[in-house]
Structures are given as C-alpha cells and as structure tokens.
Amino acid sequence: MNIHFVRATADEVVAEMEIGPIHRQPYGIVHGGVHSGLIEAVASIGAALAAMQRGQSVVGVENHTSFLNAVREGKLRATARPLMRGRRTQVWEATVTDAEGKTISTGRVRFLALEAGSSLAGETVKVKSG
Hints:
Blueprint: E1 4-8, E2 13-18, H1 32-52, E3 56-67, E4 75-85, E5 89-97, E6 103-115, E7 119-120, E8 123-124
Antiparallel strand pairs: 1-2, 2-4, 3-6, 4-5, 5-6, 7-8
C-alpha cells in the first residue's frame, strides 16, 4: 500500500500514503479496502506497541470503516488513538484526512490481546520485546 509512518507510540500513530492508480476502483475513486487497510495498519501498530509493554501481542478481530467522502488522488493521512486498552482487548479509532484536512473516512478496530505461547492459526504466538 506504500504507507509511510510519520510517528508511532502506544498513544497515537500517524501515517501517510500517496494515492496512485493501483488504489482506485473502477469508478476512479479510492477503493474502500484501501481505507480499511490504512485504518487497520495504524491502529494495529498502536495496539501492538501498547501490548508489548505487557508482554502480549495483538490480533485484529473487528474493523468497522465508514467512507465519508470520495477521493481520487493526493495524500491521505491517518491518525489512530486508543479508545480502550484492557488486559484482553483494545479498541482503537482512526481518522483519515486528505491534504486539506477534510475527513475522508473513519474507523474502529477491536483487538484481542494474546499471551506468548497462545495458538493462532496453527502456530505459536511469539511476543516481540520492545
């Protein structure tokens, strides 16, 4: 997707991406999956940074994205912040804006926190240290 992370902490993640032809659907606007993917990317980084502090990893279990304004080109900027960080789940909210600061899409991603040694898709979860 060619996402460039501007900053990433356990409290806020900001990333940007330049729209190109590969990001457009047949009507010429940015595909909804691009918005959902960008939102999940920034939220996942923040949730993972917070989970690492507890010796955990996270996996997304729900992504709800709302498409508010269509866009065809330019730079998108996504900012994610936590709404809730519990021991077993986290919820992060993200906003995607265009170069003028207009809100293009918003989303919420819910994460499940996994302890080291948990099984995920047939493999053992390894938690990376900070």
